[in-house]
Amino acid sequence: MGGHELFERSQTLAAIIRKAASVHIVTHIDADGITAGAIALQTLRRLGKETSLECVKQLDATVMGRLANENHELVWFTDLGSTIATQYPSIQKIITDHHACPPDSNAPFHLNPHLFGLDGSYEISGAGATYLVSKALDKQNTDLAALAVIGAVGDLQDRRFCELRGVNRDIIDHARSTDTLSVVQDLRCFGKETRPLPKLLQFANDPFVPGLTGREEACSTFLQDLGIRLKDGEEQRRWIHLETWEKQKIVSALTQMLLAKGFGHRIALRLIGENYLLIREEIGTELHDAKEFATLLNSTARYGQEEVGLQVCLGDRGEWFAKALNLLRGHRLNLVEGLQFAREEKIQKRSNLQFFNAGEGIRDTIIGIVTNMMLNTEEVDASLPLLGFACTDNGEIKVSARATQLLVDRGLDLSVALKTAAEMVHGVGGGHNIAAGATIPKGKEEEFLSLVERQISLQMSA
Ligand code: C5P
Ligand code: C5P
Ligand code: ZN
Q1: Among 144, 179, 214, where does a domain finish?
Q2: Which of 56, 57, 58, 82 to mutate to test the pocket of ligand 2 (most atoms within 8 A of CB)?
Q3: Is 426 helix (H, G, I), strand (E, B) or coil?
């Protein structure tokens, strides 16, 4: 039902694009944003339109004021924009977004799954929403579907069911029909193509494996005890190098470890899930697995290097790709250091939430990723949502909030909580029920926390 309306809306947006000679794309700084931007850019170029593109952290009054002054013929907001859908009438715009939005933001130029009863936290991403318009403009654009899968995986849309669902499934079918994507059941750990085996297990966090996660030595011993060789000659073996029996042995040992620790089948089953492979890419590179591809993209725009990510999406495997690999090294280091830093900060518990303040210690553009990783660690109580605070370059405070599906099922909606609280302290916020963010003025942290607490308490008692 909702899918059909979404499809109709994509036709309406396509008609607006056809009439424009020049389009300015505004997109988000994460993997979903970059893939969305790349899809939009490629689509417009194929139509012979004049194009430009920029990446932003969020749409605040400064960005919107500037855009209004720039007098673009048409602005295409991808992976963001729903929050301003009813504002700035002077800007001619179309929006392909998937963040939570109220029904009164429905408009012919606005495509968002939430307007049609679909959930944008797992049924379709910003890149997916953008792809629908691309496909409506030209059926040949199915070759861009794989990018939309990377965007969805980058946004962790497969997390809820250990596979992509909803409209994402149609997009997967399009990608498969162009021989760009294959879907396989495999271990869900990150880094099967590029990480040495012990590192692969060391970073396992969904599920977290007590005794192994966070402990490289223990992971090596665990593998050796199973009779798994860690090296082939001088080369460290990775998951992709393993024989089927070796993989099965590891998975069943991990399952037994989880069950022995009392985690239950539901958790143990999360070890395995759908993996999305970009079959035109070389095996064993950062591009072959959609999760790794998404992380590569996160290493670019989150550090102000969106051009790098964009060029990789558009197909560069030379100079830009080399730059991306360099950035990836820095990004990985920042995540490890950020996690370390967050661990040393004390997590402060309140009745309805818990938080940590990273100050200048963690970049505002990766505080969300670190908060997510923190919520998956042993020492954090998963029965409360976790908020991370970090300072931004211009002296404001960035907040990232993350929760579990269980809390969402009980009524928690972080998007509403953060948006409402942020607006009350003259900030901006939004996102998804399970993951949301906000930017607020410095000095308002305490007031903001109390407001978020009140929102959560209302939600959980409703
Ligand atoms: O802005 P955007 O929608 O791209 O970001 C989505 C965010 O929500 C990601 O940071 C992702 O980690 C988070 N998320 C999550 N769990 C889910 C779905 C999304 O933590 N099940
Ligand atoms: O930045 P972070 O990863 O914590 O964002 C979580 C989710 O909240 C993302 O989907 C992001 O787009 C959204 N968000 C938002 N408005 C903000 C900050 C974040 O909608 N001011
Ligand atoms: Zn997104």
Answers
A1: 179
A2: 58
A3: coil
